[in-house]
């Protein structure tokens, strides 16, 4: 009987037992860090990708030699499962979850149930998918040190609670892992499908165009059509990959239903390859044990290749963190000292806020900020928005005529009444409200930016205080925005309620007639009037000129009255 993925005569003390567990420990540490701290620290690992029902889960179980993954007719892997295989010399086997530290699972059925419970907890129990990882370590004497990530299988038709764009989401999730040069891609494709149209190989080609870090795994070789084989695929004659291909035989659904063990499946696989002539001479690329050895060696080489750069990045972050730690200063233990520290922080914050508003802080040459930005909002953005309002644009002659007629009731009007004028003017004054409220919102947003910019470096040491100060200041500014908006609304309403026609800038009544007269009559000339050759004018001529002027004004006033009356009549 074949050994389960066993390391086929590999000595217990391998390089992998020293290096790969170290990388696994680093991965556990990075998992606990926030996104910023973990940025740029992508560690070497193997990501298993494939379409739904490609046999990906069976391959992982064969590598472990135990049945421990949830199974079903639909999508089974609904959260990324980071699987760390740790080889040890003791005969016992167990699993440990990162979210349950210190607890060992010796029953692999319990491991399966825990994976299912954690999946349902995060992604729901109706086929939902989540990006949050499950991290599992399996300790066994029958494995080689390998770190794999089992990613959800690519599916096209949503089921259960899956969104309509489930295929796009899963592809995006997969790309987040395999796009990094530190990731070895394990592209799983069933032998009874067209290799040229393999979802796994298509995604791998996007992330790894030259195929330098992709291993092809061809599953289900035992169910290919009679008379066909995968020899040309395994030799890389169809789609070449620099790391090559490995062919495996999976447990069928019938095997799973009848609880056929992984060990029995591996024995059947060994017999299959030894008896089928098409695969003779391909022992190096056939079978799960060969896949385990290949993954182990490739991962070791990849770690050795990535390690210098990884070490440099970690050291750089250590230096940055050490500087940040030194900037925090000594810890304040006493209550009195803490009170003094708090007052100093608040004082520095207030001073920084005032300086930014008054323009006394460090002046930026890139963009306007602080008080200068507020001035720009008032003088440029707000003024421009008011100037763009054309008070006559939305009022037609028909609107004016209709308003005048409506204000006269059944009697009509001989002269222009004030009521229609006020109705039309109020409507135009109301157009000033929106840009005024928008200006208040812009000022509020700028004050929020100023408040965030004043959070001093000392506050980095007190994240809870920093968060609380930000909340208090934001609430204070927000509470000031509401009465400001109310005041602006009241000002506009006051202007609408009383139209001040006595204002010096208001043009109406006698001023309109005077302006119209200046447009009709020719301007007065300063040249001397000549009634005689010597340039003098006799008294009768002066009187005649005055009478003509009075008649002209009378005619103009009469015509203006008739014009207004005719508009009312129409």
From TrEMBL:
It comes from the Eukaryota. The keyword GTP-binding applies. Gene3D superfamilies: Dynamin, middle domain, P-loop containing nucleotide triphosphate hydrolases. Residues 40-308 form the Dynamin-type G domain. GO terms for cellular component: cytoplasm; membrane; microtubule. InterPro entries: Dynamin, Dynamin_GTPase, Dynamin_N, Dynamin_stalk, G_DYNAMIN_dom, P-loop_NTPase. Residues 549-570 are annotated as: Disordered. Keywords: GTP-binding, Nucleotide-binding. It holds the Pfam family Dynamin_N. GO terms for molecular function: GTP binding; GTPase activity; microtubule binding. This is Dynamin-type G domain-containing protein. It comes from Digitaria exilis.
